[in-house]
Amino acid sequence: METIKGKSPKTVQEYFFDLRTFFRYMKIKKNLTAVDTEFSKIPIDDITIDFLSMVSLTDVYEFMNFVTIERENKNAARARKSASLRAFFQYLTNKTHQLKENPVQELETPKQKKSLPKYLTLEQSIDLLNAVDGPFRERDYCILTLFLNCGLRLAELVGLNLNDIRPDHTMRVTGKGNKERMIYLNSACQKAIEEYLKVRPNPMSVSDKKALFISHLNKRLGRQAVQNIVQKYLKKIGLDGQGYSAHKLRHTAATLMYQHGNVDIRVLKDILGHQNLGTTEIYTHLSNQQMEDAADANPLSKVEMSSSKHKKSE
């Protein structure tokens, strides 16, 4: 699925977990496993096409009832399971033709409430940037600046390479489904990158040499490490334990641009790399100039690292 449909490794893994749960449930329902077998220990390597051909829409609705009551799945988790099953059985019927009928063709997806995204205020965002210090000050400041100005996803930031930073003040970002987009770098981003590159370590391994952000081990900075960096500074300004994360900085960037910059919602969609406009509308094709104006409209675009703090030794 990762190769065929361009799904991210994380999405593919989630689909696998959903299908595994469904297969285990079905084996219990069809009395194909011992009653005292722990759910997580039920094997699924014996699932066959004949077994799958017995699945009915009723089975699937009963499975949804099971994950709601027994596993306390919320609407979002049930919606993803519906998507996983729909993609799986559609593949078996329409692509490989191993099944004659699709049992989930009329499966309804649980409706999800659109909740407002959690984000930092402008004042909190500035406090977060001003809280950066320590031996990796330039790197950490650059990371937070890109999150808050460009609205990057965590995986997008971690995946940035040196050659993604272009001389025309744009940045190439590889988003979901390996789709590339260009983001304009405002003056704050340009300055933060410039200051970081002055002190960026030079990794020994070939694979890490191209990475933009490097850890203290001279390797590409990983997702968890970036999360830890974000949490470190959130804690410094008293926002730890309140549901804020690296992804909430993406929400912050989008919200600040929309609220303060009079940015067209369609421009915001392109900046964030959303596939559908409906995803972006929660924050209420265009020319390159409009996208550049949107980047500059972020009120943090002029905030640069203070020279008053001194780097601490390790």
TrEMBL record:
- Core-binding (CB) domain mapped to chain residues: 1-93
Q: What is its main location?
A: cytoplasm
Q: Report the residue ranges that make up the Tyr recombinase domain in this protein.
A: 115-296
Supply the alphabetized keyword list: Cell cycle, Cell division, Chromosome partition, Cytoplasm, DNA integration, DNA recombination, DNA-binding
Q: Name one GO biological process term.
A: DNA recombination
Database matches in PROSITE patterns = CB, TYR_RECOMBINASE
**Gene Ontology CC terms, in alphabetical order:** cytoplasm
Alphabetical list of Pfam families matching this protein: Phage_integrase
Localization recorded for this chain is:
Cytoplasm
The annotated region (Disordered) lies at 293-314
Protein name as annotated: Tyrosine recombinase XerC
Species assigned in the record: [Clostridium] leptum
